[in-house]
Design brief:
The structure is a single chain. With 159 residues, the protein is α+β, with helices and mostly antiparallel strands. Helices cover 52% and strands 13% of the residues. The chain starts with a helix and ends with a helix.
């Protein structure tokens, strides 16, 4: 009786040590129009760019299942999934960083345009340099055109 119990315990431990490969079919990854990454067992029909992450195990021609040595190692599949997720995370972080840099550049340009506009409005005259490098005052009509141009620049850079 004691030997039977020992054999049962041994068999239970042995079964727990054998890796179990779950069959989940193909796994696809795609990005929608809004930039959201999706994963699923079926590829979308909307024509989005699809990446196949994992394929279902193939069976042999006579209908038998594939031998364990030919099945995909679950650790490799897990590593591929982790790499895909890390790649997505890095892409999102890069996109966020680029957007942050663009926003900072726009803020700086906005501040410069506002400062220039303030100086133009507060000055009595605007000056330009001629071809010889001599300074000359702009007529009031050209000063108003420059102010209007700065207002247009402010609309473009200050959102």
């Amino acid at each position: 009786m004691k030997i039977g119990k020992t054999v049962c315990v041994f068999m239970a431990l042995l079964c727990n040590l054998v890796p179990v490969v779950a069959y989940a079919g193909d796994i696809y990854k795609w990005t929608d129009d809004e930039g959201t990454v999706h994963y699923g067992e079926r590829a979308p029909s909307n024509g989005a760019k699809v990446t196949k992450i994992r394929s279902a195990p193939k069976s042999s021609q006579d209908g038998e299942s594939v031998s364990p040595s030919r099945k995909a190692d679950p650790r490799i599949q897990r590593d591929k999934m982790i790499q895909a997720l890390q790649g997505d995370r890095l892409a999102r972080e890069e996109k966020k960083q680029k957007q942050k840099e663009i926003n900072n550049k726009l803020k700086m340009q906005c501040a410069q345009v506002k400062d220039t506009l303030r100086r133009y409005k507060n000055s009595n005259s605007l000056y330009k340099l001629d071809a010889d490098g001599k300074r000359y005052a702009l007529p009031e009509s050209e000063k108003q055109q420059e102010i209007i141009r700065m207002l247009d620049e402010m609309k473009k850079h200050c959102k």
